[in-house]
Design brief:
single chain, 119 residues, alpha+beta, 3-stranded antiparallel β-sheet, 3 helices, 3 strands, extended
Length: 119
């Protein structure tokens, strides 16, 4: 019962009640990625994803991104992508956190990096 109310009132954390109903009645399961996200499609061609855990659109891997955006490529049917040793693992979107990247993070940003001509 708590899960039912949680789906209604906390729509920003998980899939909504409407998405769950559409997934049950019209959704055809297409596949699952290595993050646990599940991908669905209906007969009209609409595609959607049910995220595992927190909703973050950057959690969609490359092999599923093309499928979601109707971009044809070679791996669209199998959704298997050969990983190379130089490829880094996925990181979530870190914007607004302590680990977010911005230039000159370690340096003193209040110090001027140039000299004015009036000196």
């Amino acid at each position: 019962m708590l899960t039912f109310f949680k789906k209604i009132f906390t729509w920003w954390n998980r899939d909504t009640l409407g998405t769950s109903i559409e997934t049950i009645f019209t959704g055809k399961f297409v596949g699952k990625d290595n993050f646990g996200n599940k991908y669905y499609q209906n007969k009209k061609g609409k595609r959607w994803v049910i995220y595992s855990g927190e909703i973050d659109s950057s959690k969609i891997p490359v092999e599923w991104y093309s499928w979601m955006h109707f971009t044809p490529n070679k791996i669209e049917k199998t959704h298997d992508l050969k990983k190379y040793e130089w490829q880094k693992p996925h990181q979530p979107n870190l914007t607004g956190t302590e680990k977010a990247y911005y230039p000159y993070k370690e340096k003193d940003v209040t110090k001027k990096r140039y000299k004015t001509w009036k000196e």
